[in-house]
Please model this.
Amino acid sequence: MSRHYLEVLDLSRAEFIEAVRTAVRFKSAGYPPDGLRGRTIAMVFEKPSTRTRVSFTSAIRRLGGSYDYLASTELQLARGEPVSDVGRVLSRYVDGLVCRVYSHSTLETLAANSSVPVINALSDRHHPCQALADLMTVFEVKKTFSGIKVAFIGDGNNVATSLMQACALTGVDFAIASPRGFWVPEEETKKALEAAQQSGAEVTLTDDPEEAVRGADFVYTDVFVSMGFEAEREQRLKAFLPLYRVTRELLSHAKPDAKFMHCMPVKRGEEVEAEVADGPRSVMYDQAENRMHTEASLLYLIYRRWRWL
Ligand code: CP
Ligand code: NVA
Model:
């Protein structure tokens, strides 16, 4: 059975940092053109995607590999074929599965039945590929992971969970402000706190956005209504607004040179003011670009250095 990347903490601290450093090198020096030669990746997506889909396919092509994009609605999955059979069968055809799913348990079932690496391209619980690009962006700006603080304001969702765990793993201080009822799930926070104990990172949980951003080098937010949660829209907007919107005023409580981060897509005027998202302190397009570099490095390391397969 292979190893998988379903959540940030599936990598060791050394592996995560190696993935970031390799991505930085790929970005400046180019990708090894035969890094994935002879390898095929199946991309199974249950939800829409712009960045994840195109950054993966572009990275795979640049590394000389090939891929198959499979919308889940076009697979027998849509007619009720068991996820376990999909895992068993696809892993006989390809060298890896990159999967975006509604329920994290779908990924766990796929992984349990796959003889090739399964990579989480977003689930309701985790977005570990996003976190790699986020920490690469932090590293690009600061050139270090030590003495840095990232603040997340808003929904304790998949992006927040993976970011919290990635900061805890790499030794970056992390603070999150969410309204009660929208905190990162307790068991995920517990794992982050354990990782933070090892790395020395400080993790702060609060419902006060001003407290979270105080002294922050980066202020991060994500949408209030993630894919799959559309039915909760009204209830969510009531809980989050106006306190949890990232505004110029809120940013003024962070460090004077603090950067704004967002995984995108952005709802301007909802979780963030347009002036912040599109302003000079925003690094969200760098994050989006870095998705491709970190996914290239992750795949390269999985097949060529870590030898998961
Ligand atoms: N950030 C992110 O995962 O974007 P997509 O939904 O466009 O892939
Ligand atoms: N939290 C968002 C992230 C999208 C990239 C969602 O799950 O829809």
User: Anything to note?
Assistant: Residues 8 and 166 are 6 Å apart (CA to CA). Residues 8-127+289-305 form a domain with the Rossmann fold fold (CATH 3.40.50.1370). The mean pLDDT is 98.
